[in-house]
């Protein structure tokens, strides 16, 4: 009986959030080590299905860096990175598209569809969805050409809206194209942020392999449960946040400044992390909101 009472309490706590978010749009970035954890992946799919069934419009952007590296290694191609971005020549780009838009994308779509919910896989080239431009980085004050690594120049919002109106969950492989038809490898966090701001999403949710945002990743007492976009910018400017968390936080701030209501960084390794973050009062990760509050 106590177990049943606890379940009822959970449902009652979730009810106002379900009402609030029905008809709203969430953009969710799914990737990293979470994709290799079968139990976490199964829980993620179930969370997605439940959220869709209660009327939330969902857009999923996935990564796949580990699987790309695995395939390149099998072909005898060495993976090289600068500032966390993969140097991508033409041959590497072919493998990137094959793994992201072919293997990983279709696997996620199949898993969602198998639960009776409609999902459809797309890449940047489908429906002229993501126009890209070449991305350069600076290493030791020297401009570096990474090859076919891009950044988002334009998102075809109308194409995405058409899919959502037809009750599909778009599942996006993070690649884009330029006017000459060249394909580009784009960081999935940046694609998710760009899609979120184009859709003026209610929430952008980044699933990571850490609990959320820390001022010092080595000190668990510095965990940040909630922060404003302005406070986040202050952490960036003071170089308190660095390493792999820096580009994620920059994406979060950009999304907030361009219309996304809130951004959540949560630990995707925890089963049903989406439901725990969105439908409970305390949540489990870091929420970034607009303004100072």
For the structure shown, list the relevant keywords.
single chain, 293 residues, alpha/beta, Carbamate kinase, eight-stranded mixed β-sheet, two-stranded antiparallel ribbon, 26% strand, globular, disordered N terminus
Structure in words:
The chain starts with a helix and ends with a strand. It is α/β, with parallel strands linked by helices and 293 residues long. The protein has a single domain, classed as Acetylglutamate kinase-like (Carbamate kinase). The N terminus is likely disordered. It is globular and about 55 Å long. Helix content is 41%, strand content 26%. It is built from 9 helices and 16 strands. The strands form 5 sheets. It has an 8-stranded mixed β-sheet with strand order 5-8-2-1-11-15-16-14, sandwiched between helices. A two-stranded antiparallel sheet has the order 3-4.
- Classified by CATH, the class is Alpha Beta
First-residue to last-residue Cα separation: 41 Å
**Average pLDDT, all residues:** 86
Q: Give the CATH H-level superfamily.
A: Acetylglutamate kinase-like
**Number of strand elements:** 16
Helix content: 40-55%
CATH architecture descriptor: 3-Layer(aba) Sandwich
Beta-strand proportion: 25-35%
Task: Name the helix and strand elements from N-terminus to C-terminus, one letter apiece.
Answer: HEHEHEEHEEEHEEEHEEEEHHEHE
């Amino acid at each position: 009986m106590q177990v049943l009472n606890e379940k009822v309490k959970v449902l009652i706590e979730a009810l106002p959030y379900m009402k609030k978010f029905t008809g709203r749009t969430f953009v969710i970035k799914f990737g990293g080590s979470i994709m290799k954890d079968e139990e976490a992946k199964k829980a993620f799919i179930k969370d997605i299905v439940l959220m869709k069934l209660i009327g939330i419009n969902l857009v999923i952007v996935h990564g796949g860096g580990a699987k790309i590296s695995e395939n390149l290694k099998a072909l005898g191609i060495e993976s090289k990175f600068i500032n966390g971005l993969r140097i991508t020549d033409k041959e590497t780009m072919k493998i990137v598209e094959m793994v992201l838009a072919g293997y990983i994308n279709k696997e996620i779509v199949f898993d969602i569809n198998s639960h009776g919910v409609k999902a459809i896989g797309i890449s940047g080239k489908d429906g002229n969805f993501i126009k890209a431009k070449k991305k350069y980085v600076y290493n030791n004050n020297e401009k570096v050409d990474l090859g076919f690594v891009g950044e988002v120049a334009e998102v075809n919002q109308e194409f995405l809206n058409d899919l959502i109106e037809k009750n599909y969950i778009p599942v996006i492989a993070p690649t884009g194209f330029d006017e000459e038809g060249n394909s580009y490898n784009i960081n999935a966090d940046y694609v998710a942020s760009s899609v979120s701001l184009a859709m003026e999403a209610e929430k952008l949710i980044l699933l990571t392999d850490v609990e959320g945002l820390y001022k010092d990743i080595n000190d668990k007492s510095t965990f940040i449960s909630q922060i404003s976009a302005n406070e986040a910018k202050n952490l960036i400017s003071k170089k308190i946040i660095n390493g792999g968390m820096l580009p994620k936080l920059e994406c979060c701030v950009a999304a907030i400044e361009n219309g996304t209501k809130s951004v959540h960084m949560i630990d995707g390794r925890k089963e049903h992390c989406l439901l725990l973050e969105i439908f409970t009062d305390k949540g489990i990760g870091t929420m970034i909101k607009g303004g100072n509050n």
